[in-house]
Amino acid sequence: MITRPDTTTPYLQQPLHIVYSVLFTLFWVYTGFTTPDLLNWALENTLTLSLIIILAAFYNIFRFSDASYTLIFLFLLLHVYGSQYQYADNPFGEWLKEVLHQKRNNYDRLVHLGFGLLLAYPMHEVLAHGLKVRPFPSYLMPAELTLSLSALYELVEWIVADVVYAGNQQGMDYLGMQGDIWDSQKDMGLALLGALLAMTIVFLLKQRPPKS
């Protein structure tokens, strides 16, 4: 898992990157055509599109490792599947709710945990290899960035719910609170937990002696 990014091989000679691009595009289009709420899908995917544009624009400037691209790919699938429905109505979340006897659909919590767990290592690569940040801050800052970005996302969600949906019930559904007044805080807490777990695992893996 812990490898240096390959910065020299062109995109068309990177079969793994091509496979991820094709699979994600097909899945993204599928969710767009099958969503019962196109406005919700479009709003949820604004950040998805922004991330893809950034990844494409910087592909030849800063190259992530295959491990990071895999983690990013998995997170985008999680998020896009969530955007296909209102998060509170996600089928997988409903299945978990029934199987685990939960009181709410927790798919949104799974995605927030995944945000920290899956994207902290790519953040670490940017800091360590792109910005040449010293080792200790390069492990700590992904957790701080995760918490900051989570808080920013919650603020953006609130603005969208208030402006686009005029604060009505559809806006409340978009927020996915499901009656939990601490929903935003729990989402941010899970993202932070995921990032801390990821960075702890990465740190421990890097302490292993290299194979002879």
Please name the defining characteristics of this protein.
212 residues, mainly alpha
Describe this structure in words.
With 212 residues, the chain is mostly helical. The protein contains nine helices and no strands. The longest helix is centred in the C-terminal third of the chain and has 29 residues.
Q: What is the fold's blueprint, element by element?
A:
Layout: H1 15-34, H2 38-44, H3 46-57, H4 66-83, H5 91-99, H6 107-130, H7 135-163, H8 169-175, H9 183-206
Radius of gyration: 18 Å
Note the total helix count.
9
Oligomer: single chain
Distance between the first and last residues' Cα? 17 Å
- Strand runs, count: 0
- Topology order in helix (H) and strand (E) letters: HHHHHHHHH
The share of residues in helices is: over 70%
**Helix-strand category:** mainly alpha
Mean pLDDT: 89
The geometry reads as globular
Q: How can the largest sheet be summarized?
A: none
Share of residues in strands: under 5%
Ranges where pLDDT stays below 50 over 5 or more residues in a row are none
Short recap of the structure:
It contains nine helices and no strands. Helices cover 71% and strands 0% of the residues. Helix 4 packs antiparallel against helix 6, helix 6 crosses helix 7 and helix 6 packs across helix 9.
